[in-house]
Amino acid sequence: ALAKQARCYTTDDGYYDCSFEPLGGGSFETAAEGYPSFQIVIDTPGVAFGYGRYEEGGNFVALPGTFRRNADDGACWDNDETGVQICAW
Questions:
Q1: Cα 1 from Cα 19, distance rounded (Å)
Q2: Mean pLDDT across the stretch 55-75?
Q3: Burial status of residue 56 (CB atoms within 10 A of its CB: 0-12, 13-18, 19 or more)
């Protein structure tokens, strides 16, 4: 799957232009120069694990808790435990 240009939002960084790469089964990865990369990896429908990479060439690290698909905007994933939201349109 090829990455496409997208608009990302994270609680920490706000809105920014990013690339969006589907990983299959609804999972995806976002990346942008100067911003962390994120992976949302589907566990069960509507529930996912999140991973972040905070330095170029670094490894993805597991984010605490689980993410749930936002009921109002399916492009957004919310973490009730940490208050983090990750979106990609």
A1: 12
A2: 96
A3: exposed
Q: By C-alpha distance, which of 69, 71, 72 is closest to 86?
A: 69
Question: What pLDDT was estimated at residue 56?
Answer: 86
Domain spans of the chain, in order of start: 4-88
Give the E-state strand segments of the chain in sequence order: 4-10, 14-24, 27-31, 37-44, 47-53, 61-62, 67-69, 76-78, 85-88
**Nearest in space to 63 (alpha carbons), one of 30, 38, 34, 31:** 38
What digits encode the pLDDT tens for the residues 21-64? 999 999 999 999 999 999 999 999 999 999 999 998 899 999 99
Question: What are the structure tokens assigned to 28, written together?
Answer: 């995806």
Length of the chain: 89
